[in-house]
Design brief:
611 residues, ten-stranded mixed beta sheet, 13 helices
């Protein structure tokens, strides 16, 4: 099966059909022109501009709307082969949007690429101020029609939110793709536990980029081409001397691996600066400053890291007054892969940029695209392998509770009081081909290939075989009542479909460190339809060994149809080696999971599904 947009009734005009109706009218320039733009503090920022070219070879005096891309991954590379692609990060946007009449502006953010300055945090507030100045520079150019949009994957998508939140009047629409909202909750401290992928492999990637360490960079699949030869200087820097000065400054960039460890709780500040928190580096902190007139399209995938799908959904819920759309596919980070076990091929067949083009054509160029007649929410249901449309989130309101019971059963009614003992093994892991590896720039295509065997290390509960197909769409809520032999513990909970032949398919997961069990967040900057833990220092509570502790949290969202004859399995461990630290260090706890009324339960948003 495929994730293409051919599901009948999901769209009134499919993205594929929209793209077919608007043939490209322009050519792409052989190369952009590039300049330094000086910021308020004297820092010079490197900018590339790609302008649409007339197809008849005549000079054009047209003015164009601009699509801005802010990247820390080099706006362009020098290549040892002139015919080689020199913009692997942003080339897709250039090649797609320029022929359709958009100027594409690509910016090396402060402290990266050919730009000067140092980066003092992950997505520094200084960068956000730069974005307003870049927008002002764009509208002053003779080729600009005074209208700006922004998009991009991951860091670039978060930057689009930053840009819109500055309130610059030229910014009319943004499409953040696979982009974080809250850095603590959805990126660095998933379940209150430091992500070793971010503080390890991603930090190594950024150091290699910032310092132009090509042997170190070649270890990463995204940048493995041996003909990539460092960041491209701007046009005026004919001898590369200014680039060399900029890279020297980058050697003083902050190290995420070091800075993140100073902020173990939500709202913690860096030790050297009481105002520098993960909050003020998070797009969600500023999102409500986006003018209501700015349209937003939040796009993510069910397997987009460890919380980016939550980021897209909460952005949609937090900004209800905007012309806001939400799209969730069966994808990993950046939609490089369709993660569905029933896919036809590893890559995605969905025309993602065609959908973004329609959005920008509507809001930046004023074209009647029929967009307002489409449902605001579209999502892909795995195992049914179809797209669905909805008028709201969550689309499924009814929930069904399942309870653990004796004999490793999962039942619809609580049974007599009892317990199951589980000795945590810190070597237990979800594997090396998971939703998390992509965040470290690993080239994963085959996800969870050994999931059937890996569950041997889990405490498991299985439902009876399903009599009919059941669709789960949304967040599974968890209440876990347990006793620990230690003062702290971690709960990693997994949802699995056990097929009739015994094969297991990973569905989703969630985690929580017991230290963070007290308090749920009610932040107006992170509106959610699922339980979100507060993770703050004031709410932190160690457990008393031998006394019951109650954890309430949610699994990451998904849309998945369980087949007739399959079993729903919920399993748990106290470790995910390679992705999260030991809790507590060197002291694997013995857990006793309590069963019975008002003990442990799992709440699933389920509805009947026709197959």
């Amino acid at each position: 099966m495929s994730d293409h947009d051919g599901t009948p009734g999901a769209w009134k005009i499919r993205p594929t059909d929209y793209l077919a109706s608007c043939a490209p009218a322009y050519d792409i320039p052989a190369r952009p022109f590039s300049v330094y733009v000086t910021m308020r503090d004297g820092c010079r920022i490197a900018v590339d501009v790609y302008l649409p070219q007339s197809r008849d070879g005549a000079a054009t005096v047209e003015r164009f709307p601009a699509i801005a891309l802010f990247t820390p991954y080099y706006r362009r590379f020098v290549t040892t082969d002139a015919a080689e692609e020199n913009s692997p990060n942003c080339g897709r946007y250039r090649d797609f949007f320029v022929p359709h009449g958009y100027a594409v502006v690509v910016v090396d953010v402060r402290g990266t690429g050919a730009s000067f300055g140092t980066r003092d945090a992950l997505r520094s507030p200084k960068e956000r101020e730069d974005y307003h100045e870049i927008a002002e520079w764009i509208v002053q150019q003779g080729w600009s029609d005074g209208v700006i949009g922004a998009t991009g994957i991951s860091y670039l998508g978060a930057a689009a939110v930053f840009l819109a939140s500055t309130g610059h009047p030229a910014v009319k629409a943004i499409a953040p793709l696979f982009a974080v909202t809250d850095i603590y909750t959805d990126q660095l401290y998933v379940g209150g536990m430091l992500s070793t992928v971010w503080t390890g492999r991603y930090d190594e990637l950024m150091v290699a980029l910032d310092q132009d360490d090509r042997p170190a960079l070649a270890k990463f699949a995204y940048y493995g081409n041996p003909r990539l030869a460092g960041p491209q200087p701007v046009d005026e820097d004919t001898d590369g001397s200014q680039l060399a000065q900029a890279i020297q400054q980058h050697r003083s960039n902050c190290r995420l691996n070091d800075l993140a460890r100073e902020m173990p709780f939500q709202h913690d500040a860096a030790l050297h600066d009481p105002e520098l928190t993960l909050d003020i580096c998070s797009p969600g902190y500023y999102a409500r400053r986006i003018p209501d007139s700015v349209a937003v399209y939040s796009i993510s995938g069910w397997y987009d890291g460890a919380g980016y799908s939550n980021s897209a959904i909460t952005r949609f819920l937090t900004l209800p007054k905007h012309q806001h759309r939400l799209l969730l596919g069966p994808w990993d980070h950046g939609a490089r892969s369709n993660v569905s076990p029933w896919r036809e091929n590893a890559g995605s067949d969905f025309p993602l940029l065609a959908e973004v083009l329609r959005f920008f054509d509507h809001h930046l160029r004023g074209i009647d695209t029929g967009l307002e007649r489409e449902a605001p929410v579209h999502y892909f249901t795995i195992h049914d392998e179809k797209w669905q449309a909805a008028d709201r989130w969550p689309p499924v309101r009814q929930v069904h509770r399942l309870y653990p019971a004796a004999g490793a059963a999962l039942v619809p009614q609580p049974q007599a009081f009892g317990s199951d003992t589980y000795q945590v093994d810190f070597s237990a892991s979800s594997g090396t081909q998971t939703r998390l590896e992509r965040l470290g720039a690993a080239a994963v295509e085959n996800y969870y290939p050994d999931w059937t065997e890996r569950q041997d290390a889990h405490l498991r509960y299985d439902s009876a075989p399903l009599e009919a197909a059941a669709e789960l769409t949304g967040h599974v809520a968890v209440q876990l009542l347990f006793v620990s032999s230690e003062k702290d513990a971690a709960a990693h909970v997994y949802l699995t479909e056990v097929l009739a032949d015994g094969q297991c398919r990973y569905v989703t997961e969630g985690s929580l460190r017991a230290l963070h069990r007290e308090g749920l967040s009610r932040s107006p900057d992170y509106v959610a339809s699922w339980p979100v833990n507060s993770y703050d220092r004031a709410s932190a509570r160690l457990m008393t060994p031998g006394e019951p502790a109650r954890l309430v949290f949610s699994l990451l969202p998904v849309s998945w149809t369980f087949a007739p004859g399959s079993r729903i399995r919920i399993s748990l461990t106290g470790s995910d080696a390679g992705h999260a630290p030991q809790v507590p260090h060197g002291r694997p706890p013995r857990l006793e999971i309590l069963r019975g009324p008002d003990a442990t339960w799992f709440e699933l948003p389920l509805r009947n599904a026709s197959r």
